[in-house]
Amino acid sequence: MIRTTAVPRQLRVGAAAASVLGIAVLAGCAGTTTSTTDDAGSGASSTDQAVDATDSGSSSGSATYTDGTYTADGSYATPESVETISVTVTLADDVITAVEVTGNPTKTESEQYQSQFIGGIQDAVVGQDIDEISVSRVAGSSLTSGGFNEAIDAIKAEAAA
Amino acid sequence: MTGVTETRWEFSAIGTSWQIQTSSPLPAAIRDAVAALIEAFDRDWSRFRADSLVATLARDGGAVAAPPDTAAMLDAYVELSVATAGAVNPLVGDALARRGYDAGYGFIDHGARASPRDWTARLDWSEETLRLSSPALIDVGALGKGRLVDRVLAEIAPWADGRIVVDASGDLAVRGGPERVGLEHPYDPRRAIGVWEVTDAALCASATNRRAWGDGLHHVLDARTGQPVRTVAATWALAADAMTADAAATALFFEGGPELAHRWDVQWVRMTTDGRVEWSPDCKAELFS
After folding, report:
1. Between chains, do A139 and B172 touch, taking CB under 8 Å as contact?
2. pTM for the complete prediction?
3. Which domain covers residue B105, as residue numbers?
4. Within-domain flag for B274
5. Given an 8 Å threshold on Cβ–Cβ distance, is B188 in contact with A19?
6. ipTM for the complex?
7. Are B14 and B79 members of one domain?
8. Hey, of B190, B221, B271, which one would you mutate to test binding to chain A, going by the most A CBs within 10 A of its CB?
9. Domain assignment present for B137
10. Which of B76, B110, B132 delimits the end of a domain?
């Protein structure tokens, strides 16, 4: 299975790509694919799900993943229907430069939500480089420390052995 | 930048990194008081140490003297639980441990297990007493860190002039001036999806990308099933206090979260796992496309 969560630092962006791709696939266990390639063979995402790599460009010396555009299709069940979506991620030098999500979820429930408690929705936000925006700090998931990181490292070392 | 005339005190506690920024260094006595406060909170509520109160209750059940934060936190859990139709539950500790997020950081998945839906019948509390009718592992992860940020800020505030920022990595509170905070992209920590200027308020973030292990497992479980959430990747909530913001950030992983945020007067942003960003009707964050 493709992991849905980011893992080791050196694999960070690759795992991130796998996350985006993995969601589409994981959510429904019914991924459909167009062709099969191993995505740069890093182990962050073992590919028993196929990924279609097109537009493979040159990768820079430090890149862990091959530049290019990766697409995965998936479906997931909602209480009302089975939705299908397609997620395309563009990678350049291990950085996600574009995310595109296509599909037309029926989501009547979501629309009802939106009218009342949700101010707006924007598709596939890529964001901006943190170094290029003027902020004094960043808020995301809590940094992990001590035992958590050591335990994860130990598991990774075991897995690599 | 803003640090020119301010001092930063950094330390690790409760499994994450803390940073307290004040206009002048805090007296040693205040630092000691903050450290003692955090230690006491950890000793009461940490499910990662064998000598904690919740570890004792998990072994033996029964009644104990209620720690100072008991009613504030568990009363909020009642609202969280109702709003999310049981997805948020303070007895989720056993389910988290079972998935591998245990006191020894075993990270071995023993499968999904639902948490007791009737948790309010098993757990009761007052200002004096905290009681479990049978042993269970309490986990206040949905709002505990926010509560601790509030407590630390309250401890410092009388001693610090000017601006104060208490940042417990993901959960922060600001007093006395604005602080611009980037909203970290859950799929790429080098990018931000927006900026939120926080003034005399708390901003709490939650995301599934760091406290993660195994095959798609992470620390936000749906207590009804014991399965990790799949539809929301990250949430940010802004409220007057950090416990409310933290609790709302957790609720926003589930259906019912937006209604609860509305009721609590919380502004929010969240990113779903298909890359969409949603925000509350009154949200003042600056969001990038």
Report:
1. yes
2. 0.74
3. 57-132
4. yes
5. no
6. 0.78
7. no
8. B190
9. no
10. B132
